[in-house]
Amino acid sequence: MTGPTASRAPRRSPGDRYQWTALTNTTAAVFMSALDGSIVLIALPAIFRGVHLDPLAPGNIAYLLWMIMGYRLVQAVLVVTVGRLGDMYGRVRIYNSGFAVFTFASVLLSFDPLDGGHGAMWLIAWRLVQAVGGSMLTANSAAILTDAFPKERRGFALGINQVAGLAGMFIGLVAGGLLSAWDWRAVFWVNVPVGVFFTVWAYRTLRETGGRGGGRIDWWGNVTFAVGLSAVLIAVTFGLQPYGGHTMGWTDPLVDWLISGGLLLLAAFVVIENRVAAPMIQLSLFRLRAFTFGNLAGLAISIGRGGMQFVLIIWLQGIWLPLHGYDYGATPLWAGIFMLPLTAGFLAAGPVSGYLSDRLGSRGLATGGALLFGASFLGLMLLPMDFGYGTFAVLIAVNGIASGMFASPNSSSIMGSVPARSRGVASGMRATFQNSGTAVSIGVFFSLMIAGLASSLPHTLATGLRQQGVPAHVAAQVGNLPPVSSLFAAQLGVNPVQHLLRPSGVLAHLTAAQQHTLTGREFFPSLIAGPFHSGLVVVFAFGAALAFLAALASLLRGNGPARTRESHEAATGDPLARPDRSANA
């Protein structure tokens, strides 16, 4: 009797290799989903050349915005719903289906049969489907890990998973540049073999280790939440586009209606969730202090991190790299390479902070990470536009370390604060806060940058063009074009001066020296540096304020006894009783 019992014991121990199978598979899924959220950002010039669509034509700005934001919008809307489905029907079942959907959409993305605007719409539509699969993966991966790992190793596992997701965002910038230089379709091909392998592996190896909550779908809650949040995020995309004689669309009545209607629907969603028997989300989870303040802190950091990523790309691609001799066509790839210290800092700090949070608690690490995150913004704000790369590399490495210090302990605290039966929906809610923050950050930071540019860029650009022989009426016309075009030009590695002057044909009538100056690497970066720096100061100051608010929220999460939610629930019979004293450390 003792022999067989002893031989079976290791398979049931916390060190069971199933934990590492679950960690490997979910980490690959989260990495792949996050990678696809950013890989397109760098590959956009090649993609739009591939479908023969001018990315900077005024009517095509919407395509650019939806290629960037559509993926995040769908994930923000769906992760709570699919997390709830995971609680009801099995987290592994929903997770496995997500891998299949993600891989199938990747295949169809790489075989775009259309051209022009129709080709762009094909890509946007299948990107949205791909985001559905990504939502199913990200919403349930943290819950699967929380079920599989014991409490004393959960922070490390969630830290690895979180690091993979955020590292995928930054590695996607480099991968997009490399793959699009070969073939634009390769940015989608890369998902196919990986997706097929891990889909099959997930179906063969993952198993349900957590309980199912049963119940039914809260259709009214799902509809009001999805439509309400979609309306707000869609309004953000319209707000970034020029409207009438304004540089942005925030005065567009449609934007006002979308935001107002979206907020009303979200308010109706809260009312519905308090009344239905089987709500889509458990609003009672917000009675848990660690859950509430952890998600608020995560939202603030997500807005700051997402906005900083876009701003740094524009800074590097539109100004710094051209001033240092890099061709516009090569700036997307090199921008990703020069941002590697950010990824390296995160990769170094993320797993370590997850390991330490299991032993020292989450509050101190997360709060310290948020404070360091804000300090790095202040350091970037003090840099000159033509900075020395060594100082820049140190600052973004510190920013990455700070993100890693915050992310793993914060996720561990959030997931450890909820009862086991609610981990799927809790994971979805956490992902909603993160994805909503990333989507909103684009609108917030771009709006701040455009507002900063609008005050001085038209005059600066028109004056510079006239000094190089461009007729006054053409210079004024170009100078008065919406600044969003200049921002997207910088982001896409396109020389906007050559692009903006081409329709007038004025370049052909200038001297060779003037043509060389206008279309060279230094003219536009030199012009935009002053106006851009004014916008940078505002943006980085706002990012620092968000970080310090995140630190305050993290501090307020509490630091009760290091008692797990499971043991608390077993002792009291009420998973939400005395919430401030559960898993807050």
Give a description of the structure.
With 585 residues, the protein is mostly helical. Helices cover 76% and strands 0% of the residues. It has 23 helices and no strands. Helix 5 (116-148) crosses helix 16 and helix 9 runs parallel beside helix 16. The longest helix is centred in the middle third of the chain and has 35 residues, at 289-323. The protein is globular and about 75 Å long. The model is unreliable at 1-15 and 560-585 (pLDDT under 50).
Defining traits:
76% helix; disordered N terminus; disordered C terminus; mainly alpha; globular; 585 residues; single chain
C-alpha end-to-end distance? 42 Å
Number of strands: 0
Question: What share of the residues does DSSP label as strand, in percent?
Answer: under 5%
Low-confidence stretches: 1-15, 560-585
Give the class from helix and strand content and strand pairing: mainly alpha
Order of helices and strands: HHHHHHHHHHHHHHHHHHHHHHH
Number of helices: 23
Based on CA atoms alone, the radius of gyration comes out at 25 Å
What coarse outline follows from CA principal-axis ratios?
Answer: globular
Could you report the average pLDDT, rounded to the nearest whole number? 79
How helical, in percent, are the residues? over 70%
Biggest beta-sheet profile = none
What would you say about this model in short?
Helices cover 76% and strands 0% of the residues. It has 585 residues and is an all-alpha fold.
List the helices and strands and how they pair.
Elements: H1 2-12, H2 17-50, H3 61-89, H4 91-109, H5 116-148, H6 151-182, H7 186-189, H8 191-205, H9 219-239, H10 253-273, H11 289-323, H12 331-338, H13 340-360, H14 363-381, H15 389-416, H16 423-454, H17 457-467, H18 472-479, H19 483-491, H20 496-501, H21 512-519, H22 523-555, H23 565-572
